[in-house]
Amino acid sequence: MHNKILDEFNENGYLVIEDFLTPEEVDTLYQAGRTLCLDAPQSNRKIFSTLKAEDAHSKELYFIESGDKVRYFFEQGAVGDEGELIVDPMIALNKVGHALHVEHPTFNAVTFSNRVREICWQLNYNRPAVCQSMYIYKNSGIGGEVTPHQDSWFLHTEPNSAVGFWFALEDCTLQNGCLQFIKGSHKSGVHRRYLRNPDKDASELMIYDRAAPIYPKSSFTPLQVSKGTCIVIHGNVVHKSEPNRSQKSRHAYTFHVIETENNVKYSEGNWLQAPQDKPFPLLFDRKA
């Protein structure tokens, strides 16, 4: 049988599957995301920004230790100097991560659904595991940009095997910061790495191994998609999203899958490390 899914994925570095989620599922996930806003901590608020790192150490620790927890990351414009909220709590969060797929039943159900397993099967995974998940808010006016990157910078395996599943829970437009991709850029290797700092005395826990590449703006293709769409993202495809300049939010749920079959090595330098007693949960084992 000819695998059309694999062809398109290998050609572009991403796959757009419309109506992957039912309207009911979209609504359930969206409501769960709103509820998380009310669960967010009232103190010790951490800001998640891909642009600048201040108060770095404690912020980094909160991030690095979030792999098996549900943790809350606020937008830069949401928190005052004393850690007080300066916007409505419903729009203050940048994202929640990184173990919703394990710790939260609503997100667990979608992540480990047969539809997701089927895609992973068609992408030729043998023993795929889900390593992390995030609810991303991208709220109106305050939702910051996500700078161009490859997911393999953060979730590196040898050979590369990371794939992202990204679910639009609201319509995504140019105005509210839809995802944008450089088609075919997954064929050019991994351009940099985000690594645990080997210098244990340094204040920075995480470092990039080289400067950010410059990607020409004109090379990005925006994907304006309707809610319920799933975008499957190759770990090496370059993508970004602009700030949300619209009056509408752009909520999304996303998680990442890696291959755990014998020959694939999960990099020890990655920020995200599974605890000894909690290996990344499997979607299936082809041999089993």
Automatic annotation (TrEMBL):
One of its GO terms (molecular function) is metal ion binding. It holds the Pfam family PhyH. Signal peptide: none annotated. The keyword Iron applies. Its cofactor is Fe cation. Coiled coil: none annotated. It comes from the Eukaryota. The keyword Iron applies. Keywords: Dioxygenase, Iron, Metal-binding, Oxidoreductase. Gene3D superfamilies: q2cbj1_9rhob like domain (2.60.120.620). Belongs to the PhyH family. PHYHD1 subfamily. This is Phytanoyl-CoA dioxygenase domain-containing protein 1. It comes from Drosophila albomicans (Fruit fly). The lineage of its organism: Eukaryota, Metazoa, Ecdysozoa, Arthropoda, Hexapoda.
